[in-house]
Specification:
By secondary structure, the protein is mostly helical. It has one domain (2-82). The chain contains 3 helices and no strands. It has helices spanning 2-17, 23-44, 51-82. It is elongated. The termini are far apart.
Length: 83
């Protein structure tokens, strides 16, 4: 349930909140965030005590940002193709 809500929020953010001049910045930051979260999520799990919690937080961030980044990237591609 939580995963679906985060993914839906990511889609809404990508569709409604990002556009125009902030597209490039969002795509760069979103891409870096997804890459770092994907690579760091497994290794941070080994931190004693709080590793599993931090890993869960990173997974939630990735679930939120992947759909948003994909939507903004697609909007950008269609905007470029339109010109």
């Amino acid at each position: 349930m939580t995963i679906g809500i985060l993914a839906l929020l990511g889609l809404i953010v990508g569709l409604l909140n990002v556009g125009g001049a902030e597209t490039t910045s969002f795509l760069m930051a979103g891409t870096v965030l997804v890459i770092v979260t994907g690579l760091g999520g497994d290794s941070i799990r080994d931190v004693p005590g709080i590793g599993s919690m931090l890993s869960g937080i990173l997974n939630a961030i990735m679930i939120l940002f992947v759909p948003a980044t994909v939507v903004v990237a697609l909007k950008s591609v269609f905007e470029i193709a339109k010109d």
